[in-house]
Structures are given as C-alpha cells and as structure tokens.
Amino acid sequence: MKIGKRTLIVTLLLTIFLVNMAAPASAYSYSGYKWNANYVVPKIDSSVPSSWTTAIKAGATAWNNAGAAFTFKWITSAADNRIYCTSAGDTYLGLAVPTHGGGYNIGYKTYFNTDYPWSTASGGESGKYDVQSVATHEFGHWLTLWDLYDSIDSEKTMYQWTASNEIKKRTLHSDDIAGIKHIYP
Ligand SMILES: [Zn+2]
Fold first, then answer.
1. Distance 160 CA to ligand 1 centre (A)
2. Distance 163 CA to ligand 1 centre (A)
3. How far does residue 9's CA lie from ligand 1's centre (Å)?
4. Domains of the chain: residue spans and CATH
5. How much distance in Å is there from the Cα of 130 to the middle of ligand 1?
6. 66, 80, 78, 81: which is closest to 173 by C-alpha?
7. What is the pLDDT of residue 17?
8. Could you report the average pLDDT of every consecutive run of 10 residues in the chain (185 residues)?
9. Quick one: 20 exposed, middle or buried, by C-beta within 10 A (0-12, 13-18, 19+)?
C-alpha cells in the first residue's frame, strides 16, 4: 500500500449537478441537493472501532455549532445513514456516498479506508490520519458541501486534500460556515 504525501478524500458525485457558489473566489461549493429536513440521524456501524466514536461525533458537532438550521442527531432511528470502516486498498482515504430521491438527499454513507493508518489522538499523530479531521470533512459532504480543489482553499475543512497528522479540518473555516448557512439558512 502506498501512502502519498497528500491523500485524496473522495466524494462520489454526479458532476452534472455541481453548482459552484463562486462569489467571491471559490468560497464553498454546494452540490444542489439538501435534506428535506433540518436534521439527519447518522449511525456508526459496528465495523468502526468504538474508540473512534468520540472523534466522529466531534466531527458532526463542529457543523452543529456553525449556526445553521441543521443538526446531526445521534438518536436511535430506522434511518440508515451510516459510517463504516472498510478495506479499500490504495484508493481513497475517506469516502462519502449520497443517495438522492425526489430532488433531495435521502441517504448518506461514509467509509474510512482501514488500509491507511488512523489516529484519534487529541493533537494528531505523526504518520497517521486524523479520524476527527476526516469525519468533519465527510460530514460536510452529508450537508452537502462539495470538495474544494484550489490551493487558495487549503485551510478549509472542505479542501479535497489532507495529509497525515493534519488536524486543521476539525475546525470549520468561515467559508465552510458560510456554505452550510447558505444551504440551511
Ligand atoms: Zn471530500
């Protein structure tokens, strides 16, 4: 397995639906879909180590605290919006996969690739990828902010690339916040 200096956090998306909210520059990118509700109920699959729970929930909390009219609710539900761990080889680090119906999000799944080394250390860990940082990014997709590609966006949670021992995506950039407030005012 090869681990690059910069590792892609991939989103499966239909580019035809991509809407760039580009004023000014590429402040954020919105897929054009949203939930037909002001909350979503995620579940952490049994494939995810229980030691990751706090870090993953902290990723959702960052968005809950952004001041938008949307909340990740950790309640028991029949909904199947789930976070998994899986072995995916030298492909992606984290993956968010939406399901759409009736013009809305109707489901989301996120996968952490266990072929990369992960850490839940509070200050990050050399040579390992930060669960909370990647979870925050992936939950941004659930919202449904899209990846940002330009180097000018490198300090934002929704920047497409990450690196080992990088924890800055845990903290939302003002443009990440502007994005969720635009979608869920
Ligand atoms: Zn992404």
1. 5
2. 13
3. 5
4. 7-183 (3.40.390.10)
5. 14
6. 66
7. 35
8. 46 39 64 93 96 98 98 86 95 93 94 97 97 97 93 94 95 97 95
9. exposed
